[in-house]
Amino acid sequence: MNYDDYYLEYVTKAERAKMAQNTIEQLKKTGKAELTPVIITGYQLARTWWGKAWNDNLKRYSDYSSRMGRGSSYVRNGAVLDLKIEQGIIKALVQGSVRKPYEVQITIRPLLPEVWEKIRIACEGKIESLQELIVGKFPPGLSELFTAQGSGIFPTPKEITFKCSCPDKAVMCKHVAAVLYGIGARLDEDPTLFFTLRAVDIHNLISKAIQSKTQTMLSKSGAKSRRILADADIAAMFGVEVETMVRDAADVTDNKQKSKGKRTRKNV
Hints:
The chain is built from twelve helices and four strands. The protein is of the alpha+beta class. The protein folds into two domains: 215 residues, no CATH class; 45 residues. The longest helix has 26 residues. The relative contact order is 0.14.
């Protein structure tokens, strides 16, 4: 594409939104791939814990904070025509000021094994189900650990590389910024995509956390378990059921009390 193509007349948000819709319809007719556009409803760019945490993480770095805003209007107006998250990579199509959409690719390094192991150990006994993790229902301590700048599970700028087919020579063009916001919106729909993106096994995290929780519960109920085992040993030793022994003892006590009551009434 000619570099001069980038410098066109100003395109309003409404016009760009209409262009985006027309492009989606045309691409669907080709049938080459199933499009998954990013659709923002309401004022917030992200609604869930994972979506918000993703956006907040990027904006906390000075390299990104001054540039992320450039893409907010694009993503709000449906300019991200397609966004797919795979292991370590995001591929997207973004409608710009020209008819043909720009191709954006963002690569994110896998989470370091030592960081993942630290997170896995920290989660032991503190998360009871996959659903809790997905909806962001976990102790504040884990939330702080997950989002710790530079040491949590969210990527730093040095772990992110990107490229766009547009002629903009900026470090981060508005099309890339729009896709970064689009990732947050996509995590609203399916938070497990975060773990796919960072190349870690969410099921391993959950299974270890639940296993630790179960072991803790069993250790706390150890005294009760020992009492049950002791009762079983007594029953085996005397060849009778403990419950039967207790019931028989209760019957004897009851009979004695009835007999004593009869003698008392006779004396009166």
